[in-house]
Amino acid sequence: MLEHVLSTIPTLDKCSIRGKIVLIRIDINSPIYNGKILDDYRIRAHVRTLRELADSGARVVVLAHQGRPGQDDFTSLSIHRDLLEKYSSRAVDFIEDVIGPAAVEKIKGLGEGEILLLENVRLLAEELIEAPPERHAQSWLVAKLSPLANYYVFDGFAVAHRSQPSVVGFPMRLPSCIGRVMESELRALAEIWRNRERALLIVGGAKVPESIRAMAEALERGAVSRVLVGGLVGLVFAASKYGGGPAVRSFLEKNGLVAEVERARRLLEIYGDSIVLPLDFRNSRGEVFKAAELADLPVDIGDGTVELYKNTIKDYDMVVVTGPMGKIEDQEAARGTIEILKAASERRAVIGGGHTILAAERAGLIERLFHVSTGGRAFLMAFSEDLPALKALLKSVERFWR
Predict the structure, then answer these.
(1) Which end of the chain has fewer surrounding CB within 10 Å, N or C?
(2) How wide is the angle at C-alpha 378 spanned by C-alphas 70 and 173, nearest 5°?
(3) Predicted confidence band of residue 287 (pLDDT cuts 50, 70, 90)
């Protein structure tokens, strides 16, 4: 699939044309605290594509999102604009509108080489709906903006696993290409696939349902040979094997994770030693306790797990890390994540996800890694299923390029 995509979907070169209006979907969704962006890696990653389009003389209209309605990190993209300007050394205009008359007039008035960032696309309720590309081609977002543009560029790998209007709708209406971020991500994935028999996957973080589904399909397809778990994913797997005390059971029930515990148990029955669980955890008081006891809520993996995972990493050529091993917002709870990232950096390591990248940057490890993915869940899901964005782009090739 990956080799076919790379040889079939046009790259940026085919859409970088002077005077043409190019709609580009990027993903600059970033960790935010108290209104400040904590890590701007994704923003820096997309600068190359934007600069290349602007230098070609294209008129560039940028679509992006931040957070979800109701979440603390759901904000305007005005703060992102400032960083895009800083890293691209290009003027980036911004408008607090997406599909209204003001946005339409701004797009029509763009000059050659100018860049316009539209407001957070998730202000539109339809952007949160998962549906087939053909349906999203009829959405307000796509119907309003596609007649104004000549090309669509998809560069938002971190949102490629979403079948949403800004991701899959535009390819149904416009000749489409992939940007430089998307191209580099696909090449890294292809390299892992070629070396899958010597590839290790480490899954952490808090997005349990997506992670368990992707792990199951990655193991079924043989995309990796072994999986290590940590973070909230690791807690769910430990609970599936050992049960857990009242605090753990209450936490799982409150967060709707009881069904995921059962799914984890079934995976362990099927794949056995191919899934490695934590031996111990560390709680918020700094105390280490055995996973078999699971009497307290963990904030990090324990010392025994760190050593087990580091020794396991040594046996593999490629190591993919998606998601932290604990609550890295707390410096004391970031130790397990940093130790695992250090060990992974001694191999050909690929990391993904905003918090994982943040931990690697804080530890000074970025330059030692084989590839830094802008996607966390998207990178994990790319092992296990065909990404909706890629399916839509392949359909676009059939419609417009052949």
Answers:
(1) C
(2) 85
(3) very high
Q: Which residue has the higher pLDDT, 377 or 138?
A: 138
Q: Is residue 385 pLDDT above 90, yes or no? A: no
Q: Does domain 195-384 have CATH number 3.40.50.1260?
A: yes
**Which residues neighbour 276 within 8 Å (Cβ) at sequence distance 6 or greater?**
226, 227, 228, 229, 308, 309, 312
Boundaries of every domain in the chain: 2-182, 195-384
Could you tell me which CATH number the domain at 2-182 has? 3.40.50.1260
Over residues 177-226, the pLDDT tens digits come to: 999 999 999 998 888 888 889 999 999 998 899 889 888 888 988 888 99
